[in-house]
Design a protein that fits this description.
By secondary structure, the protein is α/β, with parallel strands linked by helices. It has one domain: P-loop containing nucleotide triphosphate hydrolases (Rossmann fold). Strands 3-4-2-5-1-6-7 form a seven-stranded mixed beta sheet, with helices on both faces. Helix 1 packs across helix 12 and helix 6 packs parallel to helix 7. The longest helix is centred in the first third of the chain and has 14 residues. Bound molecules: adenosine-5'-triphosphate and magnesium ion (MG). Magnesium ion binds next to helix 1. The site of adenosine-5'-triphosphate (ATP) has 20 residues, from helix 1 and helix 10.
Amino acid sequence: MVLLLQMKKIAVCNQKGGVAKTTSAINIATYLALKGKKTLIVDLDPQANTTSGLGVDKAEIEHSIYNVLHEHISLEQAIRKTQIEGLFIVPSTINLTGAEVELVNVMGREYRLRKAVSEMERQFDYLIVDCPPSLGLLTINGLTMVDSLIIPIQCEYYALEGLGQLMNTIKLIQENLNSNLEIEGVLMTMADFRTNLTKEVISEVKRYFGDKVYETIIPRTVKLTEAPGFGKPIALYDGQSLGATKYEQVTCEILKIPIKRENGEIKKAELVISKEVKNNTGEGYGKETG
Ligand SMILES: Nc1ncnc2c1ncn2[C@@H]1O[C@H](COP(=O)(O)OP(=O)(O)OP(=O)(O)O)[C@@H](O)[C@H]1O
Ligand SMILES: [Mg+2]
């Protein structure tokens, strides 16, 4: 396996429920992989929506993030391939709910994930963490381990509600556990441009976060709702859809490469897996999913 120099680690985090954390984590990780970046997605949510959304059969999971956090199983043992070449997953299971309680009296409990990930530092280009909708120990483990976080915000009433609490948590983590933590970007999701509400929320969020807000805004689309039910990222479910285009565009922003516009369409050729990824066979990592 080719050794890579530095892995960029990003958490997708907002303690508010249903703001498209999982949708964003899955689809950004997928496009990173399709653009030739070897990527690991870690499902840190007991709901395991990233796990099922990427088509991993829960019955087949041997080791999950729970075993890593609670039983000192190495991260490598829990890594599985996905349907996308170059994208690997550490799945979650419902017993992760217990980890939060079980870790309470453990020394260095906030650093569990960071320690596990440090062993894989040179194996991937990107690591994406899907956080649960809370600011508990699991999210703290995620934020202690990453370089930066993406905050998805739904274009909805009360969009900014709870953000003060999130900013406070970020500050506490910067001061006590991870001084390098920074905001990678703020992603507006489920936008409906027919409504004034969407426009108002976007300008309010831009007032609060300034140029941290991604230029790309994710619209509300039926295809994005349907894809996880088929265990597929949008690139595989309908790579020509608007939701797919937008998640590809925001991935370009993250990679700081030019955004393709072309009337909002991506040419099919763009989805052809690059040679670089093809060479990445991911030897040694678990069974293939789907
Ligand atoms: N752009 C979109 N258009 C339409 N539906 C969307 C979009 N983004 C997400 N959804 C749907 O909204 C619901 C919530 O999304 P998702 O699960 O990604 O949010 P979450 O923040 O991870 O939720 P939780 O806090 O429970 O983890 C899901 O049913 C998802 O399919
Ligand atoms: Mg989720």
